[in-house]
Amino acid sequence: MASSIEGPHRGGPRALSAGDRRFAAPARGHSRLPMPALALLMAALLTGCAATTGSTAGESSPTAATPAAVTPTAAAPTAAGTPGNAAAGNGAPGTGAPGVESTTQGRTDAGEHPDIPAPLGGLGPRVLALIPGNARQAVVVTGRGRDATRSEAVLYRRTASGWEAGMAWPAHNALNGWTDDHLAGDLRSPIGVFTLSDAGGLLPDPGTLLPYDESPGFSVDGTGFMGEPLAGSFDYVVAIDYNRVPGTSPLDRTRPLGADRGGGIWLHVDHDGPTQGCVSLEERHMRQLLLALDPEQHPVIVMGDAGSLSR
């Protein structure tokens, strides 16, 4: 069955390409309204994110749902930004491909925050310009190379004196690396700055301040690209607002930019292998991230390979 959420790859292993200091946050959570029917949830999920050989919910695929990323120009229901082309200055909302220099839904508009404090780890001026002025938390995911599957994630907190870094967490990204122009099924993670507004998982809310959808729809099985088991990959997830509608469950399949642009790009539990488009962290680190993220701090994720993020 065609996958519409980029998630674990179920099937035979595929060859890889080359390649806690957490910030304290109140441990109270917000529950989300229950999802429709369990059958719909399961159907939505069994087509998705990490690197599966069967079915999973999560990363984008030909029949993905709505986008909500953060880019230079806004035109979608998200913290800041809208979809756009990968060329700087191409600011027609809802058009083009998401990327660091594009106007992708969920991305933040450039030039809205002239008071950016001291820069954070290795980010270049173009990328820094995409971070919203009201963002006080930023998860920076830096890939080892354009085609590499391993990355490092750091949660930064914005203070009066600049950005303060937390501990570095090892991470995986998509099988084929990174891209400025993500398409469903390309097995690459989208590069850019995206808002983080919703969470969920198979397990109960650990105490996050983000809206949290606990649902059996986050169940996943099968094996990943390296033959690793995918069970538990969606125990905890944070939706990355790329081609999705913020304020909805990560399982929501609405795709503002169209199904061909993929969707279901999440932060989720690592399964010891590359993903289809998501970013994965060890379970303990996902819990720490969930407890640290605070919607009042307008958190974003800045993600891409080191070279792209230095632009």
From TrEMBL:
<protein>
    <recommendedName>
        <fullName>Lipoprotein</fullName>
    </recommendedName>
</protein>
<feature type="region of interest" description="Disordered">
    <location>
        <begin position="53"/>
        <end position="121"/>
    </location>
</feature>
<feature type="compositionally biased region" description="Low complexity">
    <location>
        <begin position="53"/>
        <end position="90"/>
    </location>
</feature>
